[in-house]
Amino acid sequence: MLNPYQFRTDVVAPAIKALGPRFHTPAAEGLVFCTALAESNLTYLRQHGDGPALGLFQVEVATFNDIYRRYLGTRPDITRNLQPLMTGEAPHLQLITNLSFAAAICRLRYWMDPSPLPAYEDADGMGATWKRVYNTELGAGVPAHFADLYRKYVL
Asked: What is the pTM of this model?
């Protein structure tokens, strides 16, 4: 496992800030950071078995394509802020190799949801948001587990 504190302060926070000031809040930072904990334990770069999820944030390629092509395709202001985080590698592969880019994509997934984020201190609300927006009802994740991780590593 990567050092959680370093991952949050050296990867997640700067990546979200790079998207622009409206994207970074303490709640957003905690949610994105805890998403990587819940999805991969800051360990796995590919989904167990032959699943489609990639990177510490376990983003599925179909979800990535929706964010990268459809959503960002009509938002050049956000895309301009994302570009400096990118390398020359194929964008979907950067979910594995480029931690900052992957963190920014995770933040954008939550940003696309029309509901406001829960308050920073609301671990249960964060778990429910993660399940609804990110893990989805078909995912194996449990909101209470996310909330426990949030209490342990964020609060």
From this structure: 0.97
